[in-house]
Amino acid sequence: MIKSMTGYGYFEWIDAEHKITAEIKSVNHRYCDLSIKMPKKFNAFESEIRSILKTYAGRGKIDLYINYESYVENRAKISYHEEVAREYVEAIGKAGESFSLEKGLTAASLIRYPEVVTIEERD
Question: Does the reported pTM lie above 0.70?
């Protein structure tokens, strides 16, 4: 069991394809208060991480930050959803007609609207 409740630690692991960093901070606290911030892809490990932290620290406010970067190229898949874009263009056109406004719509501005273009990670 750790005796001091105040501390800081940093770990970085890098290989040819990935970089993972973990940073942990703890301060004195009456109870064991755990806060874990990490990418969604690691959510399956959260309960195990919590149990490990509780084994080593009986009390204190503990913040754990985990970051992940992938260096593998061509992992992202960009998808264009034409039907969603069409609905946005129609809605913008109707709003323009209702208020006598110019559309001023470009392709670059259209793809910024939610769900027109999605980026997914390939397995």
Answer: no
CA 47 remoteness from chain centre = 18
Geometric angle at alpha carbon 11, from 6 and 61, rounded to 5°:
25
Distances (CA, A) of 68 to 5, 9, 16, 21, 97: 27, 17, 13, 7, 47
- One DSSP character per residue, 86-123 reads HHHHHHHHHHHHHTT------HHHHTTSTTTEEEEE--
C-alpha span between 85 and 104 (Å, rounded): 15
φ and ψ of 92, to 5 deg: -65, -40
Averaged over 2-31, what is the pLDDT? 88
Nearest Cα to Cα of residue 62 among 99, 12, 27: 27
Q: Name the maximum alpha-carbon separation found in the chain.
A: 70
Tokens of residue 42, six digits: 């690691």
Average pLDDT over residues 5-17: 90
Structure tokens at 85: 């874009």
Phi, psi of 68 (to 5 degrees): -135, 135
